Amino acid sequence: MINNVTLIGRLTKDVELKYTPANQAVAQFTLAVNRTFKNANGERESDFINCVIWRKSAENFANWVKKGALIGITGRIQTRNYENQQGQRVYITEVITENFQMLESRSQQQGQQQAQPQQAKQQSSTPNFGRDSDPFSGDSPMDLNSDDLPF
Fold first, then answer.
1. 8: buried, middle or exposed (CB in 10 Å: 19+, 13-18, 0-12)?
2. Is residue 14, in this structure, part of any structural domain at all?
3. Does residue 95 fall inside a structural domain?
4. CATH number of the structural domain spanning residue 50
5. Which domain of life, per UniProt (predicted)?
6. Does residue 150 belong to any structural domain of this protein?
7. Are 54 and 94 in contact (CB under 8 A)?
8. Maximum alpha-carbon separation in the chain
């Protein structure tokens, strides 16, 4: 059986880190993932995917990732259900995140957040995914600060 998920999207809000009664860290978050096609009005839609991450990875994720950050994750789809107060069965499908990767530096994230009001006026027809700048082009040395590293 194969149950693998790979997603690239933007975090819809800051991560809220919680702990179980057994002191296990858990964080829930939502990724906005662009669809590859446009709707009947010519607009690109997004799917909002609910995700969960556990233990030390959850703590690292909550400490390093902020709203609007471009994130790549791998994991698996899991469904669960419960009975709500009205006696109805509620089904939840979410991605259990096993690995994550930040796909922008903090300075790029801050620039993205400042540019969002301007970008709302001039939407791009396709997602950029970092094509505007290539950190491996050799034009200038990379400015890495130990504060930017998640370990």
1. middle
2. yes
3. yes
4. 2.40.50.140
5. Bacteria
6. no
7. no
8. 62
Strands of the chain, DSSP E: 5-11, 16-19, 25-38, 44-54, 70-83, 89-102
Paired tokens of 36: 């590859």
DSSP H helix total and E strand total for the chain: 2, 6
pLDDT at 120: 44
Residue 102 CA from chain centroid, whole number? 9
Separation of alpha carbons 48 and 28, rounded Å: 13
Q: Euclidean distance between the first and final Cα of the chain, in Å?
A: 33
Q: CA 114 → CA 17, 72, 93, 117, distances in Å?
A: 25, 22, 33, 7
- The answer to whether residue 98 sits within a structural domain is yes
Tokens of 143: 């400015």
Query: The tokens 């590859």 sit on which residue?
Result: 36
Task: Using the structure block, give the residue that is written with the tokens 């290539």.
Answer: 134
For the stretch 41-53, pLDDT in tens is 888 889 999 999 9
Please state the domain count of the chain.
1
- The per-residue pLDDT for 22 is 93
Range of the domain at 90: 5-105
At residue 1, the pLDDT reads 86
pLDDT value, residue 122: 44
